[in-house]
Amino acid sequence: MRMQSSSRTQFLFLNAVVLFLVPLLFFSLNASSLCAQGRLQRVTNAVDESDPDFKKRQPKRKNSHSSAAHHNDHDYHDDDDDVKSLDEIGAELLGGLFLIGASSPWWGPHMALADSFAEPATLLPVPYENGHHGGLDIVPFSQGVGNDWQIRFLADYGTDFSGLERLGGQVKLDTTSRFGFETSWNRFTEDLGITDDTLWLGDANLTYRFAQNEAMQFHTGLGMNWLNDAGRTDLGANFTYGFELYPRKPWVIRGVVDLGRLGDTSRVHFRGDVGFVWNRFEIFTGYDIERISNINLQTWTSGIQFRY
């Protein structure tokens, strides 16, 4: 049973890698044109003003058919009924396929991990503890060593080695009910030569762990983004989606994506980490990229996490 679950987890992890790494590669390849000085100021300007990438659309041209042509089209209206019906059927099929594909990040992991919602799970204070293959103690293999809730404290440092630095922190609450809460904040500092520029960025989200087994968990949620620069604060809605994989003791692999708004522009955030678990502590390294409007704030990161 566990071997089958492990195979499904490996297959699902490969799909998750594709889901998270393709956008990261896209942003990285386009980063060279976005690394000029003054990125933090450009972020602030984009948040306070309309996104410069969006242009006003041209008004649609009015139909210039003559009344005679209109009557001719009307004469053939009956002949086109069958074609329109086929078009409608095709549109419905395409719409159904789109919905299936768009919702696959939720039902796909749920099915692959064979999560029935009927097996309660508690949270291990130490991943891989007592022979477990991850961070959860799940019925019917439960050993009664997990807790009903868990709080994680995270601190990390990041740099792009080109004048941009980031200090970050996160507090995350998780429970056996699968509902949780997370909040993070980041202090970006950019070296402009003569002076430095500073910007604060963060979010807060209500989360739900919608798919789980001992080795892998997926969560999603909604919340808000915030940005503070020189005492001015801008807000916006946020959507978050992420996974956490325990492939083999003592390793942890995780990824997260955030999509939302900040003031008058968009925010896209990707992050991937690889961690080493030691007791309640975890040391990790990874890559983090914030894309606000068309500006990239990307850093290579390292940090520490503590589970309580």
Distance between the termini: 31 Å
Outline the low-pLDDT stretches. Answer: 31-37, 51-71, 74-79
From the alpha-carbon coordinates, what is the Rg to the nearest angstrom? 24 Å
The proportion of strand residues reads: 35-45%
Alpha plus pi helix count: 4
Please describe what this structure looks like.
The chain is an alpha+beta fold and 308 residues long. The chain has a single domain (2-50, 113-307), classed as Porin, CATH 2.40.160. Helix content is 26%, strand content 45%. It has helices spanning 2-29, 39-48, 67-75, 81-112, and strands at 121-123, 136-138, 149-159, 164-175, 179-191, 196-212, 216-229, 232-245, 251-262, 265-278, 281-292, 295-307. A ten-stranded antiparallel barrel has the order 3-4-5-6-7-8-9-10-11-12.
Key structural traits:
308 residues; alpha+beta; two-stranded antiparallel ribbon; globular; 10-stranded antiparallel barrel; single chain; Porin; 26% helix; 12 strands
Could you provide a short overview of the structure?
Helix content is 26%, strand content 45%. It has 308 residues and is of the alpha+beta class. Strand 8 and strand 9 (251-262) form a beta hairpin.
Summarize the SSE layout with pairings.
Layout (H helix, E strand, L loop, with lengths): L1 H28 L9 H10 L18 H9 L5 H32 L8 E3 L12 E3 L10 E11 L4 E12 L3 E13 L4 E17 L3 E14 L2 E14 L5 E12 L2 E14 L2 E12 L2 E13 L1
Antiparallel strand pairs: 1-2, 3-4, 3-12, 4-5, 5-6, 6-7, 7-8, 8-9, 9-10, 10-11, 11-12
